[in-house]
Amino acid sequence: MTDSSFSITPIDKSNLLQLSELWRAVESTADNSFFISWAWISNWINTIPDPVYLLKYMESGSLSLGILCHQKTFLSSTYLLNKTGSKAKDQIWIEHNALLHGPSFPKHINLLKHFSEGKIKSSLVIGVSQSDYLSRFDTLGYIARCVWRAPSYSKKLTKNCQDYDYLLNTFSKNTKTQIKRSYKYISSLGEVELRRATSQTEALVIFKKIAGLHKNKWGDSSGFSNPYFVKFHTQLVKAQCELGLVDLVSLELDGKMVAGLYNFVYKDKAYFYLSGIDYSISDNKFKPGLLIHTLIMQQYAKDNIAEYDFMAGEARYKKSLADTDCEMQAVYFERDSRLNRFLNNVRCAKSRFRFG
């Protein structure tokens, strides 16, 4: 590739060795999230039935990679980064979505100009991603339409957070009181233990219990009711739990799970992906969710993890436990055309009518 170049080529899913070597080489020097690691990306490629394409983009001598799916209709052509465009398949749910950028990649990303040239002439969908990252894209000739947004919260962890009392004192007085009261109450009911899976067998057992609790709360809308979601995450647990990238955590009362976490640990960051909570005890002092997050943050501090990411979604407990926030978005970068401007005006009019 030249100093500034761009290509989109089909990926042969039956032979990913060469792509694996290329991806891992760039990943080894990149500042990327777990969701752009080869562990996640390769599992996603092998889970979805859709054709996928490799995006290679070189800018100022630094290489970036991405995996694309393509949607084409009579009126439009759209590429999606690390997503399919299918609601069912995309319930697998990626966050911190981005290109895999090599070192020294320019802050200003001029990628979109390549999507408007030659035979491609397509829109590009990226998300869910940090709004600061999406703002780096040069939108000349494009309309950036935000279709989803939510706050995201995280907690910085220092070595001092290895001490439980120190960690509690980093929270507000009200949050600290709730956690201490919950720990005392749950302990009065029996023996309390925080357990982390250390084998594939143990991880799958905890994963299955979390799935049951998650479905009890969310019913058919739970990802665990979706075959694509279940296949993807079961394979991810099997492949990565013993390598330390997947962390299955169980808070147990007399050997029974009252709260479980499905987390990822990558580089110096831990990601809270989803949880399962036992709501059978209705006492307001029973807050196993707050407690398990606090206890696992203490453990992560001992593991020299620098940040605990609660990920996107408004929730009081996230806000209570976090000390940092940002906005996450999904954005359609649409070609600036009369048709797209007209369609956007129609959407805006509908929105104003709907919400008064």
Order of helices and strands: EHHEEEEHEHEHHEHHEEEHEHEH
Radius of gyration: 22 Å
**Low-pLDDT residue intervals, each spanning 5 or more residues:** none
How would you name the oligomeric state of the polypeptide chains in this document?
single chain
Overall mean pLDDT: 93
Number of strands: 13
Percent of residues in beta strands: 25-35%
Estimate percent helicity.
25-40%
Q: Keywords for this structure?
A:
Aminopeptidase
Descriptive account of the structure:
Helix content is 35%, strand content 29%. With 356 residues, the chain is an alpha+beta fold. It folds into two domains: 5-152 and 327-355; 158-305, Aminopeptidase. Helix 2 (38-47) runs antiparallel to helix 8 (227-240), helix 6 (173-189) packs across helix 9 (288-302) and helix 7 runs antiparallel to helix 8 (227-240). 37% of the residues are buried.
Summarize the structure.
The protein is an alpha+beta fold. Helices cover 35% and strands 29% of the residues.
